[in-house]
Amino acid sequence: MKLSNLKYITAFLILLGCRQEPKRNAPSQDGLNLKPQTTKLVVSKPPNLEPPVDMVWIKGGTFYQGALPEDSLAMQHEKPRHKVTVNGFYMDMHEVTNDQFAEFVAATNYVTVAERAISWDEMKKQLPPETPKPHDSILQPGSLVFKKSKSSLPNLYDYSQWWEWKIGANWRHPNGPGSSIEGKGKYPVVQIAYEDALAYCEWKGGRLPTEAEWEYAARAEKINDIYSWPGGLEQLSSHANTWEGEFPVENKLQDGYERRAPVKSYPANAFGLYDMAGNVWEWTSDWYHVNYYANVSEIEELKNPSGPEKAYNPSNPYVQEKVIKGGSFLCSASYCASYRISARMATGLDSGAEHLGFRTVLSVDKIENK
Ligand SMILES: [Ca+2]
Ligand SMILES: [Ca+2]
Which PROSITE patterns does the annotation name (predicted)? Predict the structure, then answer.
């Protein structure tokens, strides 16, 4: 298979990371889950309930989800801000680590999506109809690995310039064959597809956060802030693992890490959560719908929203996408700046990558029902 064809597959099948602004269609109610919720808000942790290990209580409350009007870097799909209330819940204080995921795999013999044989019949459903079948030598288990550029890239909209499909890349070998997680037990697990994250949640007894829960937790009552740490952009290097310098050419490493950092390497936010900005992107359970914010903004207050009922992204019509949050070690001021609280991206369900992980949450009723 020619390299250009491989790039084509990569670009269309596994669309992720910092990407261009999605096209925005006229607002539509189609696929939006706008059912009103009337149950009482859960604010405080029930008494006598011990926090699960490595989790913190996020008290319930009301906030404004979405970009601040003065955030010049905000994309259209982060707007407008809208009023949202969420119940209190427990949340992992850090991204799920290699050690934690290894414990799950040892207990269940779970095989991740990136480790499984590729089905062309399934793959072609997510590609434009005219896409030719790649040679079998390419259709092998693997995933996406970041590739630094030797020179400046004039067009940063073509993300296949810094993503490489690597056969053999998976959570045990995050950067492909030859790479290893040995000695990196406290690093966030990556190369995790959506169903891999769900399988871990089911084993653990939790679930993925909704997008609203994730953003509420990241914001930690900083109602009018663009960033989740104090001091704004000047303090970025001491509070988050991101890309410093010209992306994807030069990384100044002011935060100390070229790629992933061990969890809890930077200060927690006011709720006690680590790496809610940067390190690795995190899956949420919401479908990505390009018009979602525009539509729900007409509602006075959303209560425990779980996102639209189905995905919709005209820029990527063949792939079912979920929302990911928080940005990663690849987010730079010179590009997408997705370490902002309101930043959001869409990622296909079966797309693992070396900058994408997750954390779990737990509703109180789930604990009480155990
Ligand atoms: Ca870094
Ligand atoms: Ca993160």
Answer: PROKAR_LIPOPROTEIN
